[in-house]
Amino acid sequence: MTTTRDETSPPRVSIDDLMERYHTLLLDVYGVLLDKAGPLPGAVALIERLNREGKPYLILTNSASRLPETMAREFAALGLPIAAERILTSGMLLGTYLAEKGLVGRPCLVLGPEDSLAYVERAGGRALPPDFTGDAEVIVLADQEGFDCVEVMDRVLSLAIRRLEADLGLALVLCNPDLIYPVAEGRFGFTSGGLAAMLEAGLQERYPGQGHTFARLGKPHAPLFAEAERRAGTRDLVMIGDQLATDILGARGYGLDSALVETGLAPPTPGGPEMAPTFVLSGLGDRDQR
């Protein structure tokens, strides 16, 4: 395995090195394979190569705005031939969450586009759209798109306070804990994780110390990595991502190696030791292209 390093940084590797070392690659999407402008350099060639060589891989994404089959179609239109069976999203974990919490069949206010509602229906919940004005027992914050943010978040806050004041209880579940994401080079946007943080801050101000927080399903939390391990049938995995606070922290917390791609959201200076990647990956090309 070819690496280069200094005393203060993780070793630099190529995608060849990772393919040789690990049974299965776990790949983040935004900031690794593409951004809103399209596929990032090397992404199309990498996916084509993985498919051609039969190398096991999974797309591991915090997105819960589009079903796997929808994502597969969109990827294919961009030249990324990724089968739906290789896509693992945080929205796919809702079934386990609702079952464990005894919430199957309960009314769920879903914040996100149409596919987000489909995730909840597949999970066994009764999905209510963002413009629903009645009561709900569960708030599923799936995505930041598909609704008027200010109007809907005001309504969600009011719903939460109304239920908590009446001692009715309320389940809060967040599919995508990311706070920001790369839109294009030099441009970033807030995600549903930012909206969840806003709602939590409002509830904390009204109910200090009562811990009204969202259950988080996506990276860096364990459920998505556990499901990836189950699907891969091995712990011989490496997480390839661009965010220290989700991809790298999550992999380390679950006991997996990680490779930080320098093309995404990672800041120029690393975080603490808990966010230190195992490797640094300059790009998605092979070692001869580095």
Q: Could you describe the 3D structure shown?
A:
The chain has 290 residues and is α/β, with parallel strands linked by helices. It has a domain at 92-216: HAD superfamily/HAD-like (Rossmann fold, 3-Layer(aba) Sandwich), CATH 3.40.50. The protein has helices at residues 15-21, 43-53, 68-77, 94-100, 114-122, 149-165, 192-206, 222-232, 244-254; strands at residues 12-13, 24-27, 34-35, 38-39, 57-61, 87-89, 107-111, 126-128, 138-141, 171-174, 180-184, 187-190, 215-216, 237-241, 257-261, 279-281. Strand 9 (138-141), helix 6 (149-165) and strand 10 (171-174) form a beta-alpha-beta unit. The longest helix has 17 residues, at 149-165.
Task: List the topology elements.
Blueprint: E1 12-13, H1 15-21, E2 24-27, E3 34-35, E4 38-39, H2 43-53, E5 57-61, H3 68-77, E6 87-89, H4 94-100, E7 107-111, H5 114-122, E8 126-128, E9 138-141, H6 149-165, E10 171-174, E11 180-184, E12 187-190, H7 192-206, E13 215-216, H8 222-232, E14 237-241, H9 244-254, E15 257-261, E16 279-281
Parallel strand pairs: 1-16, 2-5, 2-14, 5-6, 7-8, 7-9, 9-10, 10-13, 14-15, 15-16
Antiparallel strand pairs: 3-4, 11-12
> How can the largest sheet be summarized?
7 strands, parallel
**What is the radius of gyration computed over CA atoms, rounded to a whole number of angstroms?**
19 Å
| Proportion of residues in β-strands | 15-25%
Number of strands: 16
End-to-end Cα distance, whole Å, is 14 Å
The CATH level-2 architecture of the domain at 92-216 is identified as 3-Layer(aba) Sandwich
* Spatial order of strands in the largest sheet: 1-16-15-14-2-5-6
Instruction: State the helical fraction.
Output: 25-40%
Our count of helices gives: 9
Structural class, from helix and strand content?
Answer: alpha/beta
Helix and strand succession? EHEEEHEHEHEHEEHEEEHEHEHEE
Q: CATH-wise, what's the superfamily of the domain at 92-216? A: HAD superfamily/HAD-like
Average pLDDT confidence is: 91
- Give start-end ranges of low-pLDDT stretches: 2-7
